[in-house]
Write a structure and sequence with these properties.
This protein has about 325 residues and is α+β, with helices and mostly antiparallel strands. It folds into two domains: about 210 residues, 3-Layer(aba) Sandwich (Beta-lactamase), CATH 3.40.710.10; about 55 residues, no CATH class. About 35% of the residues lie in helices and about 15% in strands. The chain contains ten helices and eleven strands. The chain has a five-stranded antiparallel sheet, sandwiched between helices. Strands 1-2 form a two-stranded antiparallel ribbon. The protein has a two-stranded antiparallel ribbon with strand order 5-8. It is globular and about 55 Å long. The N terminus and C terminus are likely disordered.
Length: about 325
């Protein structure tokens, strides 16, 4: 059990003694985080446990699938939390984030709540500058309408409300503050350049960065137990089930956030199989204009990974 806890305490950058200390974490290099060459899982005592290897057979299967979908450009990163084994195909490639950018925004919000700088029960006022088209229905309310912070954040994640997202960005201090925060987490490709809807895809991320954010949520020291439970509960209620969830077997659960633009789709989150196996997923796909076959590709990749990892947990790691 002790070793399992160490494995779930992922990434040296996020293994900090308290949420408040996370605000002071210095910028870290790529080797401090998930790296295809050297994945390290580190315990709170800062002792490294180099584990994990590339899932080469799965990599080959996905590349066969990619050959069938040559008109798509994917970025893929999956990480098995039990073994540290990973699938990395263009994991560092920069993509328009679409609404997957809401995942790091959401995590940052709860880090601020834990630090006491924001109250979950406070009220936000919808201003004209917050209004955004696309996903969501808050934009149909009158300017000046008040919403609770919890309702606003929930709409941002469950129905991908763009107006709600802009209200949360504003409450967190704006894009500059958030980008600095993302940098302290070691996110190399995740940048907010414009408020939503960002139809031109100027906000960016990568599959690996999205997995890093999910890894923060698996670390028991990053958010309080109360915040982590609430974050996971809200993410499990994401209403778009057409991407990663569509490739999962019966009884699996996923806490995730999707993103869709006319030329890109994405999904990222934390998956648990009925056998208790947990893994992190991040996938982004550039596609021809509104091409629905990109959804099929994500579903098939999700199926391949799930089939490999839907196995009972081992009592101990063997290397």
């Amino acid at each position: 059990m002790k070793f399992k806890f160490l494995l779930l305490s992922l990434l040296s950058v996020v293994l900090i003694s308290s949420p408040a200390k996370a605000q002071k974490t210095a910028s870290l290099s790529n080797t401090d985080l998930i790296s295809p060459e050297n994945i390290q899982l580190v315990n709170p005592g800062n002792t490294s446990f180099p584990v994990g290897k590339e899932m080469s057979e799965l990599n080959a299967e996905v590349k066969v699938l990619m050959a069938r979908y040559k008109f798509l450009t994917p970025g893929i990163f999956f990480l098995d939390l039990q073994t540290g084994d990973y699938l990395n195909i263009n994991g560092d490639k920069v993509f328009p984030a679409a609404s997957t950018i809401k995942l790091p925004i959401f995590v940052s919000l709860f880090q601020e709540i834990d630090a006491g700088r924001i109250k979950l029960d406070e009220t936000l006022v919808m201003r004209r500058q917050h209004l955004a088209g696309g996903s969501g229905n808050m934009r149909f309310s009158r300017v000046g309408t008040k919403f609770s912070l919890l309702e606003t954040a929930t709409r941002m994640m469950t129905i991908s409300d763009n107006t709600a997202t802009n209200m949360i960005i504003d409450r967190l201090g704006g894009k500059t503050v958030l980008n600095k925060q993302f940098h302290t987490w070691g996110l190399q490709n995740t940048v907010i350049r414009n408020w939503l809807t960002d139809v031109n895809g100027t906000n960016t991320t990568s599959a690996k960065d999205l997995v890093k954010v999910s890894a923060l949520l698996t670390n028991n020291n990053f958010l309080s137990d109360k915040s982590r439970f609430q974050v996971m509960d809200i993410m499990r209620r994401c209403q778009n089930r057409r991407l990663l969830p569509s490739g999962l077997g019966q009884g699996a659960t996923i806490a995730h956030k999707t993103g869709t633009l006319r030329f890109v789709i994405g999904d990222a989150g934390i998956i648990e199989t009925p056998s208790g196996r947990r893994y992190l997923a991040g996938i982004l796909v550039r596609r021809p204009h509104h091409d629905k076959r990109a959804r099929d590709f994500v579903r098939l990749v999700s199926q391949l990974v799930y089939k490999r990892l839907d196995q009972p947990q081992l009592t101990q790691l063997s290397r």
